[in-house]
Amino acid sequence: MKKLLALALLLLMAVADMAQSSKDKAAAKEVEALERQRFEAQVKKDYAFLEKVFADDLVYTHSNGKQNGKPDYIQSIRDGKSQYDKIDVEALNVRAYNNGQAAVVNGTITITLPNNPDGTPNLAHLKYVVVQIKDPKKGWQVVLWQSQKQPQART
Q1: Of 122, 99, 120, 101, which is closest to residue 111 (Cα–Cα)?
Q2: What is the pTM of this model?
Q3: How far from chain centre, in Å, is Cα 131?
Q4: CA dihedral 11, 17, 21, 22 (to 10 degrees)
């Protein structure tokens, strides 16, 4: 009887682990798609989308160390202080936790900024980390962005 109970408990734990990992996998796919949409919204200046996906308590740390909250960061895009002509995702890794309720994203992007005054391309190569939390009412929201400039590849 004890062996049967132990086996049943192990089976239940295995099923629970599979369910959790399937929720985490589904969440990771969803967050990856949202990351790509968010980058596109930053380029297109889709303020409604940005208002929705950035949490009210967002901490956005730029690669130069400057930090913004949600209103300041979105306003910096409106004012042209944060300009993005194009954002290319080079690497993107999403790990979801807590039955698909939290996600940590890290990746590498290249941002094409407005050209330098001499007309040469202005590129920023960044490694970044994002933390997203799934709010029951608002859906996935970015609560933290942190980026670091990377050296440009020499040609």
Answers
A1: 122
A2: 0.81
A3: 6
A4: 40
Q: What is the pLDDT of residues 93-127, one digit of tens each?
A: 999 999 999 999 999 999 998 888 888 878 999 99
Q: Cβ contacts of residue 108 below 8 Å, gap of 6+?
A: 89, 90, 91, 125, 126, 127, 128, 150
pLDDT at 22: 87
Domain locations in the chain as residue ranges: 2-149
Report whether 90 contacts 113 (CB < 8 A): no
- Confidence at residue 1, expressed as pLDDT on a 0 to 100 scale: 56
Task: State both tokens at 38.
Answer: 């968010």
Q: Is the pLDDT of residue 151 over 80?
A: yes
Eight-state DSSP code of residue 145: E
Q: What is the pLDDT of residue 121?
A: 79
Query: For the structural domain made of 2-149, what CATH number should be given?
Result: 3.10.450.50
Listed residue (35, 26, 28, 63) closest to 141, CA to CA? 35
The first and second tokens of residue 82, run together, are 């944060």
- Give me the numbers of helices (H) and strands (E) for the chain, helices first please: 3, 6
Which tokens belong to 37?
Answer: 């949409």
Bridge partners, 54 (sequence order): 142
